[in-house]
Design goal:
The two termini are 37 Å apart. It is built from 22 helices and 16 strands. The strands form 4 sheets. The chain has a 6-stranded mixed β-sheet with strand order 4-5-15-10-11-14, with helices on both faces. It has a 5-stranded parallel β-sheet with strand order 9-6-7-8-16, with helices on both faces. A 3-stranded antiparallel β-sheet has the order 2-1-3. It has 498 residues and is of the alpha/beta class. Bound molecules: pyridoxal-5'-phosphate.
Length: 498
């Protein structure tokens, strides 16, 4: 399997190159030149497999330059049962009728990012051995909260890697912040920046592509790579759980193999839902991809109008991991739906960086609309949904998942399309305890201590508190630096001691 770039489709690289490098030289994103096809027989054969074997079945089609032994090493290490709080790794839970929740937060940092970021360090180190001859890989991460912690946890103490994480100083939940600032490991550093996630992401992207900085690193035998979902190695593990959820539904007798399902994804950077799109293109019977946004509803507007316009107010919401106005992975979708038109992608991305907006043709808009439905939930909708899901079905969901549940219920109301559906649940409710607790019972909205809130939420709902979050209570804060976005590159040098 060869990969090319969304901005130059003459480029050909192997999976290992795409993963080690992170982003293509001219700033484009790596995409597979063609997609493997899974027919119903193949999907059927995956039903009786556990998650690890389902993962191997999907991944080996994409990582054709990895040997079987290498793939086994990566997948067995990443999804070792003791790292996850569910035997099934990513269980599919029926909440009500055709509403099924795919719980993607049973990993060590309690957010869906673990599904990819437990695997990425393995893929990256194997890839680097093949392509980067002994260089130390420096992972730079811009995070809206969950990626940072999941990447730190995945890469901590991994040989020949260093990881630096930047997060918006006021843009993450207290639990997310504590998870990052207490991170252990000898090769890790964390720094807050004054600005929002988009500022952090743009700065990281420009550091990546800055030739002077790259040259400095090269002198020290280091190279940058990315653990953000611009890295193909982040996306490919996410394709797996759509196949796995489908197999679970067949196994549970909720559908027959071959039946169509809908998929609903709480979306920020468009990585997770893009993985579902790839699964659909590979033959998984998905009818509609429902893209759920919070009040930062730039994607809802794009899907409905064909115009992407980030020139709008930025809202800091209770679902911070979706507080994003530049959804990087949309570039990959544009490339695919435009018939692999790299020239068009270049134009659109140039327009996005110059004017903060672009508009696609009516034809392109319609082909996107045929695949996707876009909707958003405001803060009130999120709180009402958390309360309702808990009161009606005894199911406790976090703020991000609530965005998806709300958008899904609006979708069913307006279309009548209520076929069996998988809704991604992307975080444990305990990562956002204060919001979740006050949604369930407003009497407790004045508790401010994070761990008191956790205990109260547990008392009120009976939902288990994940062990890794409990353990934070006694951990020491190691990282308290704050810098401006202009000073990020200096910070990188200082954190790397160069
Ligand atoms: C990252 C994240 C999202 C958004 O996922 P994308 O792949 O960026 O669209 C949603 N919910 C949670 C909890 C997340 O951490």
């Amino acid at each position: 399997m060869q990969y090319t770039s969304t901005r130059n489709n003459k480029i050909r690289v192997s999976a290992a190159q795409a993963i080690a490098q992170g982003i293509s030289e001219e700033g484009g994103l790596f995409v597979p030149c063609e997609l493997p096809v899974f027919d119903l027989n193949k999907i059927n054969s995956m039903i009786e497999m556990d998650y690890i074997n389902r993962a191997k079945t999907v991944l080996k089609e994409f990582l054709t330059d990895f040997s079987e032994a290498e793939l086994d090493y990566c997948v067995n290490g990443a999804y070792a049962k003791e790292k996850f709080s569910s035997e099934k790794i990513a269980p599919t839970v029926n909440v009500n009728k055709n509403e099924n929740i795919l719980e993607l937060w049973h990993g060590p940092t309690c957010a869906f990012k673990d599904m990819a970021l437990q695997l990425l360090p393995y893929l990256m180190t194997v890839s680097a051995k093949k392509t980067a001859d002994g260089k130390t890989i420096v992972i730079l991460v811009a995070t809206s909260g969950d990626t940072g912690k999941a990447a730190l946890e995945g890469f901590k103490n991994v040989e020949n890697t260093k990881i630096l994480v930047f997060y918006p100083v006021d843009g993450v939940s207290p639990m997310q912040k504590l998870q990052m600032t207490t991170q252990d490991g000898d090769n890790v550093a964390v720094c807050a920046i004054r600005g929002n996630f988009d500022d952090a992401q743009s700065a990281v992207k420009s550091i990546f592509t800055n030739d002077d900085i790259k040259a400095e690193l090269a002198k020290k035998n280091m190279m940058f790579s990315s653990a953000n979902s611009i890295n193909w190695g982040r996306l490919v593990p996410q394709i797996v759980y759509y196949f796995s959820a489908y197999c679970d539904l067949v196994e549970q007798g909720r559908i027959e193999c071959g039946d169509e399902i809908n998929v609903v994804v709480p979306t920020g950077n468009f990585g997770n839902i893009l993985a579902a799109y790839y699964a659909k293109r590979m033959g998984l019977p998905i009818k509609k991809l429902v893209c759920a946004s919070n009040s930062n509803n730039v994607l809802t507007d794009f899907i409905n109008s064909g115009e992407y316009d980030k020139n709008r107010s930025f809202f800091t919401t209770t679902s911070p991991s979706m507080d994003i106005l530049i959804s990087s992975n949309l570039e990959r979708l544009l490339y695919h739906v435009s018939g692999e038109n790299a020239e068009l992608v270049n134009e659109l991305m140039a327009s996005l960086s110059m004017d903060g907006k672009y508009k696609v043709s009516a034809e392109l808009r319609d082909s996107i609309k045929a695949l996707f439905s876009g909707g958003f939930a405001d803060e009130n909708g999120v709180f009402e949904t958390i309360k309702q899901q808990f009161n009606d079905f005894g199911y406790l969901c976090d703020t991000h998942t609530a965005v998806a549940v709300k958008v899904y219920s609006d979708y069913v109301k307006s279309t009548g399309d209520d076929i069996p559906t998988v809704i991604d649940s992307t975080a444990s409710p305990y990562k956002f305890s204060k919001s979740v607790l006050s949604a369930v019972n407003s009497d407790f909205s004045d508790i401010n201590d994070e761990f008191e809130t956790v205990e109260k939420l547990n008392e009120v709902t009976g939902a288990d508190v994940p062990e890794p979050l409990k353990a934070l209570k006694n951990k020491e804060v190691r990282f308290s630096d704050v810098c401006s976005k202009e000073n990020m590159s200096e910070m990188v040098f200082s954190l790397l001691n160069i």
